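Now for today's protein.

===
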Amino acid sequence: MSATTLSMASIRDYNVVEQFNSRLEEIRTKLLDQAMGEVLNDRVTELYQEHRRYMKAVLGTCFKKCKEDETIFDMIQSYKEDLKEKTSLQKEKSAEHLEVVSEIEDKEHHKALLFQRIEKLKKDQAKNRELIQSQNKANKDRLKKLNKCKDIFQKHLSLEIRKIQGEKLQFVFRNISHKDPDMVHTFLLQLNAENVYHIISCDPPLEKMAHLERRLQETNNFSAFLANIRREFVALHSGAKTA
């Protein structure tokens, strides 16, 4: 039997064919694994590089974001501190404003009180001025009446009226004594701020002067008062008693 014949016989053998197919499958699998390994290695490397680039980009973005956040945080802190400072200043200004307003109100109140006092003083001064003017007018009227009566008194009663310093009037009587017509009898009279007559002195003294003074203050009848005074002076020399 030739070699060709044996080979063909061997190929036809089932076991040989099975072994051959198995061997071919192993070779194919090995080649596939080798090819797939190279492909996977390349893909993994590519994915790894891509992942590194992605992570680098992400880290850069995160770092940039952190920087921005840090800047924003610093700005926020700065704003907070600035706001705190401004709030403190505003409180101080508000306190100063309230103090100034209170001071102004006190001054306005004091000013109003001063105006009230000034108005009251003006009214009081006006009343006092009116009172003084009224008193002056009354005094002038009385002095005018006295001056009108002066000549009459001097002629009929031998009376001389002299104005003495201190708003006093001196009344000088003559022709009281028949023995000595030139002998003088005097009394000093004053009109006070309430327009009340007061006898300051009398020479010679008269026992009834206090009574005559009260009558003058009650009746304000000056002519009758002078006549009564003269009558009392005459009575001193004649010894007669007057009612």
